[in-house]
Design a protein that fits this description.
This protein is mostly helical. It contains six helices and no strands.
Length: about 180
């Protein structure tokens, strides 16, 4: 066989070229290791910080609200207990309610009689002042004698309403003043 015949044979369609040995065997693709869960990325640190700040702020707000309520209750108790006799204590409760009502509505001081009791019942589920033992506020401070049970029942509802008026309106009026000031400018 000559050189010429060898080239013709290699050009034949069924002939396979001689395979050269692979110098580098192919291996599977190596994936990088998955990221570890610790330390978390920066975004998760920020989320954790925001949640921690929210928990601290809510705890501070609740603690402050509890202290404020305790201060209001202490003010009521010391003022009422300082009065001599049950009629004087009822008069002191009425005065405290008037002061607290003035925080909600400055014109509440001018109310008298049933209008005053309806104002105290506003927002309440049960009208304890205009239809219940709360009517004692109208004349209880002027009576010679008041029953101990009547006084105890009155003190409970007046104390609860005093705390509501003092707590609820302080924040609301502060925000409303800010809102009115912002709208005016």
């Amino acid at each position: 066989m000559t050189f010429r015949s060898a080239s013709i044979q290699s050009a034949a369609p069924n002939a396979l070229p001689a395979a050269a040995p692979d110098p580098l065997p192919l291996l599977d693709v190596h994936l990088p290791p998955s990221p570890s869960w610790w330390p978390p990325p920066t975004g998760w640190w920020l989320v954790l910080l925001a949640v921690a700040l929210a928990v601290v702020a809510i705890g501070y707000w609740r603690r402050r609200a509890r202290r404020r309520r305790a201060e209001i209750e202490r003010l009521f108790d010391t003022t009422v207990d300082a009065a001599d006799g049950l009629p004087a204590r009822i008069a002191a409760m009425s005065e405290l309610l008037r002061r607290a009502a003035r925080r909600r509505d400055p014109n509440a001081v001018r109310l008298a009689g049933d209008a005053w009791l309806r104002f105290l019942d506003a927002g309440q589920r049960v009208p304890a002042f205009s239809a219940g033992v709360g009517r004692t506020l109208l004349e209880g401070g002027f009576r010679r004698e008041v029953g101990e049970q009547e006084y105890a029942a009155l003190r409970g509802i007046v104390r609860a309403r005093f705390v509501e008026l003092m707590r609820g309106t302080g924040t609301r009026s502060r925000w409303s003043r800010l809102w009115r000031g912002r709208r005016a400018s």
